[in-house]
User: Fold these one by one.
Assistant:
Number 1:
Amino acid sequence: MDTKVKIDTLRKLMKDRGWDAAVISGGDPHSDEYVPERWQARKWLSGFTGSAGDIVVTYGHAGLWTDGRYFIQASKELEGSGIEIHKTRIPGAIGIPEWLGMEASKKPGFKIGIDGLTVNSHDALEIIKNISPHGGSIDDAPDFITEIWHDRPEYPQAGAGILADKYAGRTRSEKLSWLRGKISEAGCGAMLLSSLDEIAWLLNIRGGDIAYNPLLLSYMVVTENRCMLFTESCKFSGNDLETLCKDGIEILPYDSIDHEIVLRAKEGGKMLIDGQTLNYHLYGNILQSFGHERVCDSLSPVPLEKAVKNKTEIKGMKKAALMDGIALTKFFIWLNGQMKLVKKGKTLISEADAAEKLNELRKSTGALDESFATISAYGKNAALPHYSAIKGKCSYLEPKGLYLVDSGGQYPYGTTDITRTIPLGPTSKREKRDYTLVLKGMISLALSVFPHGTAGTNIDALARNPLWQHRLDFGHGTGHGVGHRLCVHEGPQAIRHNWIDCPILPGMITSDEPGLYIEGEYGIRHENLLLCKEAGKNSCGEWLCFETVTYTYIDTSSVHKSLLSKDEIKWLNRYNSMVYSKLHSFLDKDERKWLEKRCRPI
Amino acid sequence: MDTKVKIDTLRKLMKDRGWDAAVISGGDPHSDEYVPERWQARKWLSGFTGSAGDIVVTYGHAGLWTDGRYFIQASKELEGSGIEIHKTRIPGAIGIPEWLGMEASKKPGFKIGIDGLTVNSHDALEIIKNISPHGGSIDDAPDFITEIWHDRPEYPQAGAGILADKYAGRTRSEKLSWLRGKISEAGCGAMLLSSLDEIAWLLNIRGGDIAYNPLLLSYMVVTENRCMLFTESCKFSGNDLETLCKDGIEILPYDSIDHEIVLRAKEGGKMLIDGQTLNYHLYGNILQSFGHERVCDSLSPVPLEKAVKNKTEIKGMKKAALMDGIALTKFFIWLNGQMKLVKKGKTLISEADAAEKLNELRKSTGALDESFATISAYGKNAALPHYSAIKGKCSYLEPKGLYLVDSGGQYPYGTTDITRTIPLGPTSKREKRDYTLVLKGMISLALSVFPHGTAGTNIDALARNPLWQHRLDFGHGTGHGVGHRLCVHEGPQAIRHNWIDCPILPGMITSDEPGLYIEGEYGIRHENLLLCKEAGKNSCGEWLCFETVTYTYIDTSSVHKSLLSKDEIKWLNRYNSMVYSKLHSFLDKDERKWLEKRCRPI
């Protein structure tokens, strides 16, 4: 079926159901960053492969709403499909709720079909807010797309297992007891959890249902004396099931969550939910079963508790960084050797080859998986915000200019995320200046000391200021939280220009990754992970600082030394020296010599 | 009457009116920073002279709610009064709304008497939110305090006048036409304004009803074709009345605003108000007269428009800074001479004497008034957050250590605010270090370049970072907006650690005033005003920067040069050189020589 036929089929379904419009979102029931194939209805319907966007179809119009990252890609992929692009995040943009509001104003009793499992409740309520003044309404139809998407993939079926206490540092019983305290503080008798990483962290379980993120497709309900995990028990081994059972975890079928909500409601008490992440279908069920007065919609306390790593988790994250450092060092040595061959015309190395090699080396140091798809970008490709090197279609590395590699690993004991920008040969004066300015920003944040209560937004400018002084900037956040053997992107803290209402707390691990992207020329990003630590107390307050927990040398051959302050030079030399002392015993003689040279003070 | 007797009298009044509690706020009907005597009921009732706090009296309790600035002062002033202190802005603090909520839960039909003129609507609604679930209610009783405060002062009666277009740069007709556009955009037929500085700015009028702030006690209603100013017409000269009349400004009695709201409501259309500043009495009247559906409670557009100065206003602000520079230079020369005499034991100079001298010199350069009460603080007094030197009770200056003077003037064409910290003789190593760190912070902000859309909160850390690196900080904002021949503190922009949702825009003038306060030892603050300007456009965005618009030398004798970067030294030398070149022609030969020496590069 081509897109036009699919849309016609969808319109027939709409007609049968009495809908004036249908929303096809790109989301899954758990607000995952990486959406399993089963829920990629947007891609199936339209052919658009971007990671953000929603489709609305009426009888007279079909539109894809997406943001600036995808304007060019979408216009290529949607050519001839009859789907029009609606640009979001631009001045004067009209979002889906407003657009549907206008449509609803034209026809009394306007009815919109939505798969409530694939839209979070806050987004659905925004639509309702816009259509209800005109008498419009939403019809929640879970999985309606299955009627027309005949070869729709099944639920992900990966196995799952227990994360040992020696890695988790805190037992599931301890975590559940903490959560029960929070549920009771909120005056509730139960809590429904639907965020997969919250569930995985609370129960010390890890799965493989989501790409890169070691998560298990599930819901969870916690009451004063019960803990129900809604998933398929066959995903676990018998031993793991026994362990979970001993800890009082009941496993119920994934699909029985709706029924359980109805049962819960009959038992009395209030239900705690987080409408920011909960899908609209379950939200609707809860509201109907419990009634407005018995639902407490509040920010889940789990993300903050999860973001503050315990000692064992920190130890694991540091060990992962060490293993990563070994893999990356070996990678850069390999790359260096390959570039010599390239120079002699004896081989060709593509961006995808390099990524593959790095992945291989990382696995040989114990990584179970990548923590996200490696960005391996040479020259002007590194200036593209979402570059992905595809074998056979990507660039070959040449012995000149800058190569950017942003990658990370999932180790049994922790998760990494690191970016290095490496000269493959001579670099221009401007490349050197920019390389140094970005480095200044990264170091400035790493060196920062700040009072308790400081949010990431408060210190974001420290990383940007060296660039700003040259009227340069980068269009992404400076830092995101990193999970422990979990999602490489996690909240609630972030270091960003827009306001993030969460302080940076001791134990949090956040990335420090300023960059600079010169279109058509080159891209630079330096990224380390920062562990927030206490830094003393005095009459001015309680102080916090960062410890860098990434152990991979920073290339100094492109550093423009006079642009660095004395403190920045000291930091850089100490950092590289620390890296050498941590890694050298894991390297052979030649590798050691190679690294020693690169870690020499400037 | 002593406080106890006054409270007994109040309780009698409460009984007569059937109230269970009465709230005595410290506010006036216009949310003014400096409250006229007529509305200082809190001071009259309790004897507490602080600038922040509210009193609640029930039959069993009398309490003053105030914050950390006043805990010590309040406990002294309230001794023996029977009024207890409730601490606010501390962890676990119970505010007035919550406290009244608890009281209301104990008695059905709990009734609270409030002078709605003295409480802004948002605060009153917060109380209602807390008491209404228990069946409690508010009784709005305007001016009820007059019944027991027999010698209550009258309304302020100062004269008012027109600010000439040559100073305002934009006529009142232009401003009103702009405002009418905004009212219409909001779908309203009229707007009620109650903020005195919004009214003064819109109509290009200035008054003298409020200390330091050249404002006129008034309300204002703007409709599509009428502009009504509610004040006493006898405050204006005949000429000014004629001018206002020609521009279509109708003057009605201050007290007739209530009646006018009722008339307005009968004419139909919606009313635009800003509940953040509007008092609860008028808010209640509007709600009753218009009905909920016909009231649009929204942030007033005036403060932002007012904060962005036009070319004429900027010219005036710069001229004021120049005159201020002359006054301050003469002041520091005088101080220098006096300290020589002090050293020889030939004279004594108190902090109050110094403030008086500065005020005198400022008047001789054309200032009409101070823009706030000068802070003249020597040695350890400068470490007190709200120090006020009282003649006969304050310290004498000695020829050693640091003297801090924070002051400003109201000139016909502009308003100033400046702080200098000056060594009166030898200073310690630590004083020099701290003097330099604070200076680094001030310079760092002055040198900042940032993209369009940046809020003050985003760049606040640039001023704090040099201190933070030494685990030092200051407990106040880094910068506030400054009005043009208006309030020295104005919004909506601010440079603060907490989030302020307003970008710094070209034309805004904001203070840059980091500080450091070492209790019992010394205090340091450096303050200049910064004009935000455009700084070019490129592929990374539209850039903004600051121009310093304060022209008074910065003493370099206490600078620890090696703590400053090359760029900071360059800024300092250029700044002092610029100050000299601007001021020298206004000084006599000796003064010039004195200043030239102090402006020499380091």
Number 2:
Amino acid sequence: MDKSRLKNAIINAGNRNAALVIKNANIVNVFTEEIIHGDVAIRDGIIIGIGSYSGKEEIDADGAYLCPGLIDGHVHIESSMAHPSRFADCIIPKGTTTIIADPHEIANVCGTDGIQYMLDQTEWLPLSVFFMIPSCVPCTGFETSGAKIVAKDMEQFLSQPRVVGLGEVMDYVATANADGEMLDKIELFKNRPIDGHAPRLTGDSLKAYCTAGPETDHECMTFEEVKEKLALGMRIHLRIGSASRAVEDIMRSIAESNLPTNRIMLCTDDKHLEDINNEGHINYILRRAVANGIPAIKAIQMATINAATTYGLKRYGAIAPGYRADIVLFDNLTDFNPRLVLTNGMVFKPSPEAKMKPDPKIYNSVHIAPRKPECLKLQVNGKMPIIDLLPNELTTLLRYEEVPCENGLFVSDSKLLKLAVFERHHASGRFGLGIVRGIEIHNGAVASTVGHDSHNLVVAGDNDSDMLLAIDVLEECGGGYSVVSQGKVLARIPLPIAGLMSDAPLNKILEMQRKLLDALGSIGSWRSSDPFITLSFLALPVIPEVRLTDMGVFDVTQMKFIVDNQ
Amino acid sequence: MDKSRLKNAIINAGNRNAALVIKNANIVNVFTEEIIHGDVAIRDGIIIGIGSYSGKEEIDADGAYLCPGLIDGHVHIESSMAHPSRFADCIIPKGTTTIIADPHEIANVCGTDGIQYMLDQTEWLPLSVFFMIPSCVPCTGFETSGAKIVAKDMEQFLSQPRVVGLGEVMDYVATANADGEMLDKIELFKNRPIDGHAPRLTGDSLKAYCTAGPETDHECMTFEEVKEKLALGMRIHLRIGSASRAVEDIMRSIAESNLPTNRIMLCTDDKHLEDINNEGHINYILRRAVANGIPAIKAIQMATINAATTYGLKRYGAIAPGYRADIVLFDNLTDFNPRLVLTNGMVFKPSPEAKMKPDPKIYNSVHIAPRKPECLKLQVNGKMPIIDLLPNELTTLLRYEEVPCENGLFVSDSKLLKLAVFERHHASGRFGLGIVRGIEIHNGAVASTVGHDSHNLVVAGDNDSDMLLAIDVLEECGGGYSVVSQGKVLARIPLPIAGLMSDAPLNKILEMQRKLLDALGSIGSWRSSDPFITLSFLALPVIPEVRLTDMGVFDVTQMKFIVDNQ
């Protein structure tokens, strides 16, 4: 907030000189947990008073509920597949006015250039975007990323005003073992917020992890996990994204317990545009929280002031004098459908398209070595490790089973698919092969350059030639998603920004996504509610129990390769 | 916390290798508001686990309550009259292991040298001392301080690890009027905590003040004030020091209300050694909070994690892995008398005396111009302004009354005393004269170089010659307190450190203070519970309603001089 704006706001707070007044509202006070009927006065994008006001411009709230703009406490913009400005245009109408973004995905492709690109491309948005600097680039040593970021590389970002802390510390094994490189990063951010990521971690390992420094967790699957982590001083994000939805039981348990909620927040982590469009964003999590018995004001605190406090965002997360005029008007506190959203004191308008510029360092990121048709042949030796997808979860189970084969080579039966991950940053020619259950495809393949977290090319199919074609398509369009069947390209989504995001207009992205899902539906079915995320997470070697990287099949629980392709 | 210590703690948290274990305790968890029976394991001064542990050294808690070390959220060490190490030795046995110190007093005498002196003299203490950089040096333009600190002077402190924020913004008039110099300071600390100080401020003025940036207040006198300030986003300190005790009614109202308490903290602000010794420190406020109906765990949160959160003190304020092993063992959660106090994982021992060194820049701070006996003559013109002390409050009332006089000059009748404030930093010869009610002295005078906030020399008496002698005594001993009667020195406390603090041992300071109070008692009586503080605050032109500075009698409500001696 610049000084002359602040000065103006202070003086006008004292003399009741408002430029904009929202009249006749039920104003949610997140500090006292009260709802107060009155007006909110705004000047220069800053709230200057709550009470009885008149102003140059007036908006009649007609008794609707006025909440602080919602805060997504942990989100990867890249997972929307949309340029940050398109993402902003999608979530602001849902009431989210501030996000804590972790540009972990683009950093794994483009390194510090990717982080700087996201900083540059979010500076002029109506959405307030704060950044956590990715701590795990690469995520682990068990995959090949596009870049490596060490503590020293992070120093350049410390002085940037929208950089608040260290991104989710995913490598919990290295952390709990006091790995030197990880501790260097934690040391650099020791006076700032440090996000954690500790799925299923418990007992002594969790204590060691907490001792190291991570302070938040957004991976809790049970209420017991929430309680254990809260008791150890962690702050908890309740997450509902596109793929992970176990949180409703947790919400019910919180509602029934006496657990203090002031260290609990809400986040989406990874959520696609279509899902945001259909059901909402943080407002959807609010709706579910209230439906599961959490008092509305407690839920609103989770979505506003609790996150602002955790991430040290002064003047955010409340309707109070001196706070940024990010305000949402809801008809009621059960549906949380916004009637009106103000950011920085202005009624929301879509972002100016003119400022979005292609950056050659970020575009054209897909570099795959030439492939021979026989590269996808998978030898069968006794029981084979199967990556078994759990319905609607990011976690997988590791099973060993007899698989169909011909001439000693695995043959897909459309329920057990072949999966491959190709290194796509340095054209090294490295790739891993495996078998997955939970995706069904008949006579076709699907491929993606979105492959958490190194974003190598992931491809699944029931025949090698379609798999190879699906790869060719992505190589040609600079990354994205492709669906092919019997030698034909059924659908594709070009994602030229780091192979992760599109700069197309929102409707165009949504249309491409729908076409791709339709194409997928025409050749098979998925256990998960979201094929995009399911496919993308099959390569992430930090979520239990088993994954495939460009280096081979990886047992996350044991932290070692089962099948090492190197 | 240094990296090798942290590394050691992480590894040992994972393998349960504790150096010290406190066994069989009832451990207060400030995150979940639960009390858990178990052991606390410590290694290298860091808590590494809660559960069932054995260690090289063990302490049997025998079922006693284990709390995080208490935090004083706002304190001026100088008001104890003791060097920081003596102060630490006094408060740690009461359970306070961390303080947020505002070196406002020494800064008003010695400027940035004074702040640096306090940083240097607290580095080696078993007490954790964090600093807020004084924002009001001088406090106002209505008095003469020893130094002036502008925003630029503060920059040197920003990189010091124990400097956390901007000290109490006392000049609420300048702040609410968006005064440029004040906004420069607020701008410099815009991403850090900013303490407020807004006694009786309400309505639009308070909104303007909050808009400017101050985030805390420790001056609330009523529950309504607490509610108004909380609703505006301020965090509230409940203060019990030596002079201000209105807080018990507020505590009862909090206990009876549904007001969330996570933004409420405890502080002493100004408290003398004798009072700390007799009744306690933050543990005394806990005792009063619980006696007034606040649940013990909520009160303990106020005294620990709430303050740590407000001031961004990571790893402080809780018993959890990775947290600093500052721990207090209480027999019960009603009296809060510590049985044992650990700081940094070690049982408390008094500070090493050897590190305390006189600093010529800080010692010898008293410079008063020569005085003529007739300087204290006070002309009477009609009704005179009286500074009327309220019992047990810092606030005063302004009254206009006929006063006794002879030959047109005021004559004290022992209930209305003469009061003078002499500029004592630059030997300017400037002084103010006034009349005070609430101190009774017969045939004597009392003087002090502790005179908030500019710390000019304050003297009160019923005759001019004793007043002049009381001044002479302080000039001779480099500052402090003196009591004289009929030409004899009855008692004195030399305070060579900036005229504010003594480097003598605790018992010696306490003995001098007792003798001084006895001497005062032998010549008069005081409305206040603490003559030291009452006298020292008579010169502070930011607490309503009326004060005397070296420039004259000042109406705080109107912000102007009634009698201008210049």
